[in-house]
Amino acid sequence: MHDHFSLPPGGNKPPACNTGVNSLSGARLSPSWGLDWLRLSFPESDVHFLTESLVASGFYPSPSRGKHGYTRGYEFRDDPLSTGEATCFIWWGGDAMQSKATIEVPGSSSETLFLALSRLSVAFSVRRVDLRIDYDGVAFLTGQDAIVNVLENWPYRGITPKYHKIDDMGQGTGSTLYVGSRSGSCLIRWYEKGLQMRDPMRPNWCRFEVELKPKKFEQGLIMWAMLVHGKRDQLARSGFSAAFLPYFVSAENADKIIIPPEQKVRDFDGRIDVMVTQYGGLIGEMLQRSGGDWTGVSDMLKRAFQRKAEVLSLASKRPISDLDEQEIPY
């Protein structure tokens, strides 16, 4: 095990970058994070507009089968005569999809399509985004040792992510080290891209990838905004991936960026719906105790508010009659 990246056991932050970190950073082929996969959710009502926008940008659609539960689909290519891999896909339709559609952009097309999509007035929400940085002249085992060392000295509380390796066993087809789970919100890949691509000019080409999948739709909206505003460094730190960035991108520390769910502004009826969802069981019990009489439920609530007002009165040492209207919870 090389000693080029060591974390103190139980520490909150990895140390600042050392010489080993800088040497790997200097071998980067790309100066910043690139996109390697993009899957976005958007309103189904925008499918026609998005299709027209892609056609106007020089892409050619053809019908395809729906995936991931969708019933309809298009696949797009930048050459109308091409029968190879599609540049991107759009899927929509299906009662279970809640009027949502999906556009998926695999691999090398992600950067080009992102530029086109980021100019559109469509409410995109990230479902999956892969960020990558490429290196040349860095031994795969060097990066592997760094990753394992970080895992053995995990800087965060909670469960340490597991890792596994697909080894080419010296066959020259390229090895891959995975950290995390494909079903989780964060997955790390470190692999020999040059060997896997059979690129004789770059046999030492390695790639570090961070795959992120937000748990909530609202978090996906924020992640899309971060992409549009060029905040890929912060986005790469939004998962446990932050622990590895001091080594791979010379980050000063491994503080994780927490992406909070967007707070929804609800009208009065919406707030009532939330209350019923949270307390429906209790309200049902109150209705049962009152013999199905809603007036009885109202009386129970009035008595509860009165008891709380009395508690406030005792706490403030003021009679209820002197409490401000805003202080009385009814």
TrEMBL record:
Gene Ontology molecular function, alphabetical? translation initiation factor activity
Give residue ranges for domain Replication initiation protein-like C-terminal: 169-219
- Pfam families, per this entry? Rep_trans
Q: Which UniProt keywords apply?
A: Initiation factor, Protein biosynthesis
Q: Which InterPro entries match?
A: REP-like_C
The protein in question is named Replication initiation factor
